[in-house]
Design goal:
Number of strands: 29
Radius of gyration: 24 Å
CATH architecture of the largest domain: 3-Layer(aba) Sandwich
Largest sheet: 15 strands, mixed
Family: Belongs to the ATP-dependent AMP-binding enzyme family.
Cofactor: Mg(2+)
Shape: globular
Helix content: 25-40%
GO molecular function: ATP binding; CoA-ligase activity
Keywords: ATP-binding, Ligase, Magnesium, Membrane, Nucleotide-binding, Transmembrane, Transmembrane helix
Distance between the termini: 50 Å
Amino acid sequence: MEDSERPSSSPSLIDPKKGFCKANSTFYSKRSPLPLPADTSLDVTTFMSSQPHRGTTAFIDASTGHRISFSDFWRSVDRVADCLHHDIGIRRGDVVLILSPNSISIPVVSLAVMSLGAVITTANPLNTAGEISRQIADSKPKLAFATPELAPKLAASADISVVLTEDDEEEIVGSTRGVRVVGVLSEMMEKEQSGQRVRDRVNQDDTAMLLYSSGTTGRSKGVDSSQGNLIAHIARYISEPLAPPNQTFLCTVPMFHTYGLLIYAMATVALGSTVVILRKFGLHDMLAAIEKYRVRTLVLAPPVLVAMINGSDLIKAKYDLTSLKTVRSGGAPLSKEVTESFLEKYPTVDVFQAYALTESNSAGASMDTVEESQRYGAVGKLSSGVEARIVDPDTGRMLSENETGELWLKSPAIAKGYFRNEEATNEAFSSQGWLKTGDLCYIDDDGFLFIVDRLKELIKYKAYQVPPAELEALLLTHHEIKDVAVIPFPDKVVGEFPMACVVRKPGSFITEKTIMEFVAKQVAPYKKIRKVKFMSSIPKNPSGNILRKDLIKLVIPSNFKL
């Protein structure tokens, strides 16, 4: 029997309550099976467009009120794909970058690119030109889609051509401040198709998406997800719908991120739901959109729930939120206190948690019923098609229920690995296809997953991931800093923010303000250092690695309260 094969010949070996199989120490999902297509040459775009539903409006721009129907949306996808193939020469395997705030253009471009067997990658609009250029150097895109105001960030990458995603007549002529402009998206969406639909044959193992995930060391890595991985992602939501059919969602999270792109630009499209898109998140913009468009479902990061709790009296006095029925939370665990406080303030809204990673393409765990959501502290039961193992990080021994260890996941949705990074891939993915999440957890007697801690050292600022090593490397370039460690400092509003523990060089009197300004000039806003503590030394092990947990205990008092 294969290492991870379900022991179908002996179903009694799988505990019906928790899904655990003693024969191979594997937990199996108790959800409905994934409805995967038999055709292995089917691309994810075609798979999505073939799903039956009765939805009418696909997307609404919250700021302008502009709507696009499903029929017009899919027509636009086909037209953009036709232009990319015949006019620009995009072929199977070519990489296309999107640099844009939340917009209807993101799902149109993404699905058009992937229908050709080409690869989509996204960049955070808040990132600096230098950070974006490093991603471009790694992924080597042939083309970029960008707004006129963001296009100048691509100027350092001279080889890349740009399609503008917004009409701006002054910027369209010639080039946009050093950027070679080759088209405008709105014109591509209106251009009649050539009628020639001959394209490269797509295999489901072909890379379809490169989303960059911050690693625990060094710079971010491109997560290599295949057509098949994304089809499995869509199949999961067909099996486990986010909400009843044809509901209205509000997109509050960045669409360049796995959370926004996979749910709001893909899953909801396949399900026939309407998505109202916020170009940029603002609490009052979000609340106004819920009222105006009668939004039923939100997907939020925990800090937004906290903001809604803290401002509940003013919010309920000013906005009609009676349409809101469900909030799904992800990105970080929700405490029992926050969940209970939210339900007390908004008693007609259900709160469902979920757990996934960029590398898992939404495969993980989730709460799917009100009864499940009352298991406080848990992040849910294993998603459809997911297998899990709990592994002792020190011995490698596979553990059973109620034993804490590192969570390993396996699913058809799990990414292939990290793009052009064999070392990182081998570290995070086993030879049998298990994703080592880096999260310490346990699964209880009823099959609920509980996240206890994380082995990874990422700082979670709102929904953003901040790798401490990146900021440490930057700070060490300052001529007055001898040593440094960056740790997460808990914050009621944002979850965590980066705090620098700094050892000055002899004779230096560098200040907290100078250090914070030094970093702020060179990184995206969410990566900024917001607190500094000066120390005589940084605790490290004999190998020279920072003892980050010891440092956190030393710097942040155990009785510290938010």
